[in-house]
Amino acid sequence: MKRFIGVALLLWAIACRNPQRGGEAVFPPPPTQVDTLRLSTIRQVFLTPPSTTKAPFVFIGETEDTLMGRWQAGWATQFALGGENVQFYATELVAVDSVILELFVASSYGNIGTPLRVKVSRLTQPLTSGTSYPPDATFPTDGQNLTLPGRDTLTYTTFTAGVVRFALDTSLGRQILTLPSSALANQATFQSAFPGLYITAEPFQAGASAAVYTLFPRSPSTALRIYYRERLQGQEVPQRYDFYITDTCTWAYRLVRSVNGPLPLRDQLEQDSTLWRERLLVAGGLPVGIAFTVQGWEQIARRPVLSARLLWPSDSSTAAAFNAFYPRPNSFSLYADTTEEAATAAWGFGEFVGEAAVWDLTQPIQEVALGRRTPPQWLYLWTTGRTYTLHRWVAAGLQSRTPPYLIVISAEP
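Above: the chain sequence. Below: its structure as tokens.
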């Protein structure tokens, strides 16, 4: 016993040359093992276009994307009456001074320096609550552009999220303010009498590449405002009525993609699956993702996982496609066994580290290693908020110089 104590003290004395390593002498850390799990059966996934009904963000504008083709977007929306049996004026409407459409612009995608002409027209048919509107839906209008010349331009030198204002023909205000009382009885009768507006934006110069802007419909700053005067007791009194977009409204956007010149990468990948070995595309809007499987789960069975990272390099040959106007996505979502954004299938979010997208998968991989989670049959990668962003990224394929891989560091059990 004394001999054992003496040996222990000797080891402790040696370790104490570095006090931070004293504990390691008595309780040495377990050896670690590094496993590289290979990805296989990587394929491009062209997801079903989403319904645009009551989307939290909508699009207007037009841009030319070298990887995706030409985007054109418009937005159809109803407006809320704001009450029942509304009266805009007591005795007499004197004049409509101005009609202003305010839009909260949340983000941009494309060449913001190219001016867009915003066009606003009346819908001729009410939008239907509960209807699923696909991205290529059409919205019938009266064809009359209500925006006033000189007050219809959307452009930025440096993009800043915020409100932009467009002046509309005052005839729209007079039409709404002089609706019969039966049309102002409630929200349903109002939207039947005034179905709403369809808003688009196109370059002043046909064919120019401009930008697509993302709007926030439910912002208090998105509204149709009518400034008018009414006569009260012989005096002209200025008034204003604001029409907002609320849960009682239905809205939907139109987002179409066309190809006018050489095939962009998206179409090349859709037509030629052999390209998937070299590069793959992740894009939003009309979502495009990547599906893949992982080999070698048995290598980490019953091991305490210390770290797990999925590294997916970029395709270097398409680096020129990314710039300040057409940037890479900020983050990516990874889901298992489903192409839907189900919370129970979430594996985490990845971000760029250098030229590679990286996911910290330590927790889900640990659960797989310990048998608490079934190894996924498929994993799916797409942009975060895939429906409401047009950002895209070109990822390396399995036969690229630097293919993707999953590296797992575990301790010996």
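DSSP finds six helices and 21 strands in the chain.
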